[in-house]
Amino acid sequence: MSTLVCVILTTLIATTLSSGANRETLEFLIGSRGRGLKNGCSSENHGKYRAAQCSKLGDTRAPPPGLPVNKTGLLVFADQRLASVYPIIQKFKSLITSDPLGITKTWVGSDICNYKGFFCDRPPDNDSATAVASVDFNGFHLAAPTLDGFLDQLPDVALFHANSNNFSGTISPNIARLPYLYELDISNNLFSGSFPAAVLGMNGLTFLDIRFNFFTGAVPPQIFTQNLDVLFINNNNFMTTLPDNLGNTHIRYLTLANNKFTGPIPGGIFKVFSSLSEVLLLNNQLTGCLPYEVGLLKEATLFDAGNNKLTGPLPFALSCLEKVEQLNFAGNQLFGMVPEVACELVHLTNFSLSDNYFTTLGPMCRVLIEKGVLDITNNCIPDLPFQKSVEECSDFIAHPRSCPQMWSYTFIPCMSPFSSGSVNPGMAPSS
Ligand SMILES: *[C@@H]1O[C@H](CO)[C@@H](O)[C@H](O)[C@H]1NC(C)=O
Ligand SMILES: *[C@@H]1O[C@H](CO)[C@@H](O)[C@H](O)[C@H]1NC(C)=O
Ligand SMILES: *[C@@H]1O[C@H](CO)[C@@H](O)[C@H](O)[C@H]1NC(C)=O
Ligand SMILES: *[C@@H]1O[C@H](CO)[C@@H](O)[C@H](O)[C@H]1NC(C)=O
Questions:
Q1: Is the CB of 164 under 6 A from ligand 3?
Q2: Nearest residue (CA) to ligand 3, atom 4
Q3: CA 180/CA 137 separation, integer angstroms
Q4: What lines the ligand 1 site, CB under 6 Å?
Q5: What is the mean pLDDT of the chain?
Q6: Within 13 Å and on the Cβ side, how many CA atoms surround 420?
């Protein structure tokens, strides 16, 4: 995989998903892109927090040992803000049902900045105060029935990362009140319910990772135009259509794979995501025909729409994906001729069209079979081995499918209007 740019899905995702979606490797991969927390800090600083220091303040600013408990046995905190989150943390601790790594053993006493998973910094609104600025529970394998009353009660938190735990429940609408939260990663947990709509109003939020949970229902289209860099929502049970008019998006990394997205792929979506390097729509329930606007994905190195219910011929516009290395349309209901222009893409190393109903294959594409680049097994190409039965192929052809704007299937948007191909790409079978 040669590039780490982005997508309707990133390289990371691509790597992990296409190689079997190993959840445990997710954070490692993310981390390797510089998104992991170092001492509780992201590669950037705490957003509105002073860039300054991301090392544990506890090392230099926490009260010296001996101070936490004064003579009356009461806890003494380095700052009122720490005193006020202490009961919140202790209450959450009492809800934890599994802690195989013994993390919460460290959650005792007043030195919160030295609890495992908690990190302190100067809050944006008071340069001399000390507050819990980030929480990093990644890989702690904690289990708790909810984060309610915890996450939403940490008023100074800027980063909350809780990848790979067994937290469940829904996400409280109260998180909308956290003024500094800009990275929220609750991926690979057991969260359910609808999309956490509270994030919609959170203008400071730039990173939202909720993949590998059990969220259901629709994804509010506004999320695509919010000021997010990263939106990972793959591997949930979202059931929704893809919005057509997305407007302007800031998203550089987007993953939609492995949900239950239904309906057609609107052409407009490719306009919006024309700078994404990976477009992963695999394992959804997308229907309809692939619009010629797919040719606008000039930066794409990976386009994966495998295992959907797409039909129609493949648009010639695929030949505009000059950087593409992997194209996957396996497991759909595509038919007609495989466009020769797509087989001429110079960087193509894996072109997967197996389990469709293609009937015709030209010489350029046949060369790719010999090179081991093109997989077209289980289609309807009469002179090739490992194809569907004649019965299955004629059954399919007996039920004609057509696409809107059939003219557009030979249209190549990256070429001048007069140089587009004139070869018939294979029209819908007609009875
Ligand atoms: C102990 O700490 C509590 C709470 O900060 C305070 O009210 C009390 O005066 C302290 N007692 C002593 C002896 O320092
Ligand atoms: C800022 O924080 C310090 C330390 O907690 C506190 O003593 C001070 O009163 C705070 N200032 C304001 C303006 O809140
Ligand atoms: C969640 O709990 C199950 C059952 O106890 C366990 O097998 C699994 O490893 C846990 N997952 C994480 C991420 O801790
Ligand atoms: C090509 O891509 C398909 C679909 O993503 C995948 O199943 C297959 O393993 C890939 N082949 C190679 C040689 O990488």
A1: yes
A2: 166
A3: 18
A4: 70-72, 74, 76
A5: 82
A6: 20
pLDDT band for 72, please (50, 70, 90 cuts): low
Ligand in closest contact with the CA of 83: 1
Work out the burial of residue 61: count CB atoms within 10 Å of its CB; fewer than 13 is exposed, 13-18 middle, 19 or more buried.
Answer: middle
- Which tokens in the block code for residue 199? 């994030």
Across residues 249-262, what is the average pLDDT? Answer: 84
CA distances to 63, 65, 113, 130, 255 from 68, in Å: 7, 7, 12, 15, 46
Q: Judge if the beta carbon of residue 328 lies within 6 A of ligand 4.
A: yes
CA of 164 to the centre of ligand 3 (A): 9
Identify the residue with better confidence: 430 or 105.
105
Q: Report strand pairing: 118-121 vs 285-289.
A: unpaired
Mean pLDDT computed over 216-235 = 90
Whether 311 shows a pLDDT value over 70: the answer reads yes
Average pLDDT estimate for 166-175: 96
- CA 267 vs. chain centroid, Å, equals 20
Instruction: Using DSSP, state whether 304 is helix, strand or coil.
Output: strand
Q: How many CB atoms lie within 10 A of CB 293?
A: 22
What residue owns the CA closest to ligand 1's atom 5?
Answer: 76
Cα 225 to ligand 3 centroid, rounded to whole Å: 34
pTM over 0.85, yes/no: no
Q: How far is the CA of 338 from the centre of ligand 4 (A)?
A: 18
* pLDDT at residue 240 in the model: 86
**Residues 401 and 409: beta-carbon distance below 8 Å:** no
Alpha-carbon distance of 275 to 265, in angstroms, equals 17
Report pLDDT digits (tens) over 313-356.
Answer: 999 999 999 999 999 999 999 999 999 999 999 999 999 999 99
d(CA 373, CA 338): 14
Q: What is the pLDDT of residue 422?
A: 44
Structural domains present in the chain: 11-410 (3.80.10.10)
